[in-house]
Amino acid sequence: MITPNLATAISELGGLIEDADRILPFTGAGISTECGIPDFRSPCGLWIKNQPIPFDVFMASGEMRDESWRRRFVMEEIFAKAKPGRGHRALASLYRAGKVPALLTQNIDNLHQDSGIATQDIVELHGNTTYALCLECETRYELSWVREKFDTSGQHAPDCSCGGHIKTATVSFGQAMPVDAMRRGEELTRHCDLFLAVGSSLVVWPAAGFPPMAKHNGAALVIINREPTEFDALADLVVRGDIGDVLAPFIAG
Ligand code: NAD
Predict the structure, then answer these.
(1) Is 106's C-beta closer than 6 angstroms to any atom of ligand 1?
(2) Which residues are catalytic?
(3) pLDDT tens digits along 233-253
(4) Would you put residue 210 in left (φ > 0), alpha (ψ -120 to 50) or beta?
């Protein structure tokens, strides 16, 4: 069912939430647009400005590693000042109420952690852009350290003392998916009774495989996104509205 208006959407969603014991939210960039972080595929999204740098290109080219860090630091002001939005706060309320055991996200912005959901209960499928890792020895680097090296070297990406390249702790196109996160995502998906896909175009695979997996395992599937997605026909409820408006009534306290 595609809900005809906001009131119906909120009432239908409220009923499904009330009936559910184990809700699994699955979030995408759309939940963070009201926090000032552009998504990828909307008309003013990041994709339009800069095509992503695939992993093999990052590995092969020092210039592209420099470019990748330049782009990251251009975005820093936006990431640093973003606060959880109404969608994040509503999901955190459901988490505190015991309805949401854990959350699956494609986002890399750390806003679910900032909303009060414990880090161990957030499964990040595409990593996190608020810190960096050495791709060889996995040493963690803070962005302030990378920035200082970058600025004092004439805008060159620093390498780790082991010789490995340092990259934000995100998963680029062509980079292997994190095995643990995928395994946990699958387990959570198989055991939920309500799957809430929020703010994702559902075109990035393998993450996009989770909503149909949930449905095939007997969970109710809800898709909240202002644009149609490929899985709308499979969903029990489709809400084509603004995420903040739809989820605001579920913010507790
Ligand atoms: P996407 O850009 O492909 O899709 C976002 C969807 O959200 C779009 O269909 C858009 O119409 C919808 N949307 C945007 N704002 C909305 C709103 N306020 N209400 C309702 N719908 C809204 O994003 P994706 O599916 O998450 O996949 C893109 C990849 O980009 C992900 O892997 C993610 O890691 C990465 N990404 C993350 C962030 C972030 O962490 N905030 C931002 C940009 C991109």
Answers:
(1) yes
(2) 126
(3) 999 999 999 999 999 999 997
(4) alpha
